[in-house]
Amino acid sequence: MTDEATDAATDEATDEPRYEPAPSVGKLFLWVLLFIVAAIVVVLGGIYFT
Questions:
Q1: Which pTM was predicted?
Q2: What is the DSSP letter of 1?
Q3: Quick check: helix, strand or coil at residue 50?
Q4: Phi-psi bin for 40: left (phi > 0), alpha (psi -120 to 50), beta?
Q5: For 1-50, what is each residue's pLDDT tens digit?
Q6: 3-state secondary structure 10-40
Q7: Distance (Å, rounded) from C-alpha 3 to C-alpha 18?
């Protein structure tokens, strides 16, 4: 029996769903910053090429 099958059987037996840990604040901030920078690049690129 594999570890995944054992883990699934354990989860079903305890009725406690397993969740991924929440992202840290720093990691979340970096993703938000990345999307903001990408949006600025797209806008500035659109202005530059028109």
A1: 0.51
A2: -
A3: coil
A4: alpha
A5: 555 555 555 555 667 778 887 778 888 999 999 999 999 999 999 988 87
A6: HHHHHCCCCCCCCCCHHHHHHHHHHHHHHHH
A7: 15
